[in-house]
Amino acid sequence: MGRSVSYPTGSVVAFRLLDDDDVDWVYECLLDEVIDTAKAAFPSFERFDGWRGREDRILLRNAFADCGISTWCGLAAIWLAERDDPRYWEADFYNPRTARARHWLGQVSDRFIELFGELRLVGWFSNGEAIFERSRSTCNTGC
Fold it and tell me: To the nearest whole percent, how much of the chain has pLDDT over 70?
């Protein structure tokens, strides 16, 4: 079975290609761009250094969501997902956050995709490989 870039289940995801010339430098620049742009667009985010599993890196966190990045073979998934850590669920037990988190994610998802999306996931081949197309906002005239 083929493999594609990882991202948390149920997350809002924007996809980008990483330049092949110097992937490490491009990745570091993308990290800075995601952090700066997301913090400017969504001021409730604070820097956070963590992981969801082994492949999904958390860059920012607020009371409801994690913002992070995952990469695979030159493809980056910039994602926004409801928090899934013990402190979040403990706080949810005493003061429910899940409904508010899902509402907030619904409110910001279009803006998030507009800020970070260069590619749109079209579908999957039967072997598990993903198919993408350029998003309309990044197409040159004639798309």
Answer: 92
Distance CA 30, CA 19 (A): 11
66 bridge partner residues = 61, 81
Instruction: Please give the model's pTM, rounded to 2 decimal places.
Output: 0.85
Backbone dihedral region for residue 73 (phi beyond 0: left; psi -120 to 50: alpha; all else: beta)? left
Tokens of residue 59, six digits: 């860059």
């809002």: which residue's tokens? 12
Given this model, what pLDDT does residue 141 score?
A: 41
Cα separation of 51 and 78, whole Å?
A: 14
Beta-carbon contacts of residue 87 (< 8 Å; ≥ 6 apart) = none
Kindly give, in sequence order, each residue whose CB lies less than 8 Å from that of residue 17, ignoring residues fewer than 6 positions away: 74, 75, 76, 118, 119
